Structures are given as structure tokens and as C-alpha cells.
Amino acid sequence: MKAWALFLCAAAMLGISGCASQTVALQAPRQQLFHDQLFQPPSTPVDTTNVFALSPAMRDYVRYEIGNPAAGKDVRRMLFDALYRRDKLQLEYDSAITRNAAQTFEARAGNCLSLAIMTAALARELNLPVQFQQIEVDEVWSRAGNLYFASNHVNLSLGRPHTERNPYLAYSADTANALTVDFIPVPPKARENARPLTETAIVAMFLNNRAAELLAAGKIDEAYWSVRKATEVDPQFLNAYNTLGVIYQHHGNAAAAEQVLRYAHSQGPNNTIFLANLAMTLENNHQPEEAAVLRTRLAELEPYPPFYFFHQGQEAMKLGDYARARKLFERELERVPEYHEFHFWLAVANYHLGNLRAADSHMALAQKNSTTRGDHDLYAAKLDRIRAYEAQLRAK
Are 213 and 61 within 8 A, CB to CB? Predict the structure, then answer.
């Protein structure tokens, strides 16, 4: 079974994908969508108070590393420099897990949502206004086993300190010239079209991300309670209901999955992820006619879904048709030029074809574009093996 999860920044996608459609008025979900009795009670309630909470180490950092800036110094710029300069916080992008503010600061690593949450927590300690933003860029896809994740992007902007009496600087509350903090390159046009997000939406995204990560780790009961909390925090955050449906699928609750995915689809009828998950659920529930209608609509909105050519390439690899596999992986890379797994498999195909230089190049790109430390280390080891083999050939 292949399930599509929504995940923000290696996470939950807010926008409706596919063609433009008539706006549908969101309706409050019914309580019947939740089936607490199917899951083991959580050992501790899901806590949202720690999402932005500062640790003692974070307070010390603000006090001793940033401190009281001299007259004329911009405290926003000082925080900005601390985030970006390698001799300061030395942050790393790591999409493996969505962390709260304190966890991100301790690890010095996180995905864009984690890093935005940590930055907001530090900024507020400095009395800086914060505005979260949804950046309108194409979602990035990744996978873990049979789960597929769509990641969109969040950043934040820092306004000037709130009042003239704040101890850092006598700035006004004017946020017209806010300073944007981002951890991945974003096209200028995408920044111009950024959509403001509330803190409530950010917390719901955080919980939805954690639910998707827990599901991928096989912790289905914990995933349920996390996404359920996300729907409580922001009842109109549709991606959480999609995640809830996928959780029901993996828990073996087909009727519950159908019910919640029907709700998500009714609110976002042209969202291709909702469509794909509902169609799959209907097929599993022996409703092929209705599923076929949804598949037809899905094909109209998205003729070549994410990983379409990649899966064909993997089938070609199994058959030993490495030349065809290479062409298919190259087609997938044309759509997503920087996705590490596509480079990895293209390296493998070239290796089997005896094109060691191309194999070396694509494995190096897989390593460069990896988004977790585990993947980075894996590709580094594979690259070492390819180069060792190249050296052996040259020595002969």
C-alpha cells in the first residue's frame, strides 16, 4: 500500500494542489471523524506549551552572546548573523525530525519549520515582533518506505523591537522593513507572494509533522494523538485530516479512513493528495467504480504524479535494463533536479553500465543534496566505494 502524507518542510502542505477550483467554504469537522477507542491512550497528553519554550541555554545565549547592543546597532541583524554565520550557532539543515525550539537549539539542526520555531523563540526573548510566512514554491517530495511526503516551505520575518522602552534599542513598532530569515534559497518572486501564518497554524503544522514522523517510525498510536491534537489546535487545517486518514489506513481502520478522507476531499476537492489517498482507500474498501472516477479526475489534474518515472526506473533496474532505468531516472531529475534519491539511483544505474565518472558525479550530488545526516553518511560511504573501485581500475 502506497500512502501519501502531507508534511511541512520535511511537512504539511497548506495550499490546494492541482488546478484552480471554485472556493469551498470550510466546514467544522464532525466529532465522528475521531475514534479514540481504537488507539492506546497516550502515556502523557500531547503538550503544545513546549513548542516555543526557551531552555536555560537559549536564555543564556541571548543574554551573553547577543546581549545589549550598542547604540545604532540593529538587534535583528545581530540575531540574523548568529543564525547564519558558521562561527556562531553553526546551524545545519536536517529534515529527519521536526523539533521544538529547545530541541532545535540543542541539536543545532532542524528542518525549516523547526528552525523557524527556534528563531521565533529567540526573537521574542529579544522583544522582536515575528511574522511566520508560507512561501509559495512547488512542494518537494520525499519518501520513507511506502509513505510519501509533500513538503512546502515556511520562513519568518523579524520586525523592529516593540517599544522605545525596550532595553535593546529605541526602535518603533514599524514592521514595514522587516528582516526575512530563511534557511534555504527562495526565489524573490516566491517571497513577494508569501502568505502570513498565525502561530496557531504553525503549532498545528508542528503536530502534523510529528504525527507523520511517528507514523513513519511505526508508532501509530502516538501518531494518532499528535494529529488529533493538531485538529484541536486548528480545526480548519485540512492536511491534518489527510494525515489522520493515512493513520487509519495503517492501523487497519478502513471505514474510518474513508470517512475522514471523504471529509478532507469535500473541503479540498482538487487537492491531488486527498484524491489519491481517497481513491486508494475506496479501492481497498471494494468500491472500484467510485475509485475509478477519482482516478480519472486525478489523471486530469496530475498526469505524471511524483515518483512516476522513478518507480518505472526501479522496475527497469530489477529487470537488469540499466539503460532504460537511467533514462527514466533522468526524466525524474528533470522535474526535481536536486532530489538526492534520484541522483543516488542514477549513480547506481551508471555504475552498472560501466559509466564510473557519471556514477561518481551523481553520487556526489546525492551526498550534497541529502537532507539528513544519515543519508549524507550513506552516500559518502557509497561514493568512497565507487572512487576506490575507480582507483583499482586505474592501477591495473
Answer: no
Residues in the chain: 396
Q: Tell me whether strands 147-158 and 130-144 are parallel, antiparallel or unpaired.
A: antiparallel
Candidates 246, 245, 181, 236; CA nearest to 205 is 236
**Which secondary structure element, helix H or strand E, spans residue 179, and what is its range?**
strand 179-181
The one-letter amino acid at 66: I
**Coil, helix or strand for 136?**
strand
pTM of the model: 0.82
Q: Of the residues 276, 291, 306, which one is the last residue of a structural domain?
A: 306
Q: Of 254, 278, 306, which residue is a domain's last?
A: 306
Give Dmax over CA atoms of the chain in angstroms.
Answer: 75
Query: What CA–CA distance (Å, rounded) separates 88 from 90?
Result: 5
Alpha-carbon separation of residue 364 from 20, 94, 357, 367 (angstroms): 39, 18, 11, 5
CA–CA dist 350, 343 (Å, integer): 10
Domain holding 234, by residue range, is 1-306
- Whether 105 contacts 57, CB under 8 Å: yes
What tens digit of pLDDT does each residue of 210-257 get? 999 999 999 999 999 999 999 999 998 999 999 999 999 999 999 999
49 and 67 fall within a common domain: yes
The answer on 184 and 51 residing in a single domain is yes
What tens digit of pLDDT does each residue of 54-78 get? 999 999 999 888 876 665 578 888 8
Report residue 143 as a C-alpha cell.
519518501
Q: Taking the C-alpha atoms of 249, 254, 260 and 264 in order, what is their torsion angle to the nearest 10 degrees? A: 70
